[in-house]
């Protein structure tokens, strides 16, 4: 789903749906909206992620598919409509390049014997 993809891009990991579902199922008196709020983003501190972004992802990952936003609602969401830094694509590219180079490790040259 698009919500899973956005979560992966923003947080660098897949959403922990199994924790959310098990945490929420303990209280059967909660509405599905209350269940959704109880588990989302509580396991870790994501201080660098804007609240509007977290809210959008939470909405996109709602356990009830009928309550998830349409593509038009996603595109008009305040976080999606906000202006990004002009050099953001370049920043993302440079960070990904750095991570890719780091993951490849140092280049080891073979010594002739």
Automatic annotation (TrEMBL):
Residue ranges of coiled coil: none
GO CC annotations on file: cytosol; nucleus
One GO process term, biological-process aspect: intracellular signal transduction
Ranges for region Disordered: 20-39
One annotated GO molecular function: protein serine/threonine kinase activity
Domain Protein kinase: 1-80
UniProt keywords, alphabetically: ATP-binding, Nucleotide-binding
Superkingdom of this protein's organism: Eukaryota
SUPFAM superfamilies documented for this protein: Protein kinase-like (PK-like)
Protein name as it appears in the record: Protein kinase domain-containing protein
PROSITE patterns named in the record: PROTEIN_KINASE_DOM (PS50011)
Nucleotide-binding among keywords: yes
InterPro entries cross-referenced by the UniProt entry: Kinase-like_dom_sf (IPR011009), Prot_kinase_dom (IPR000719)
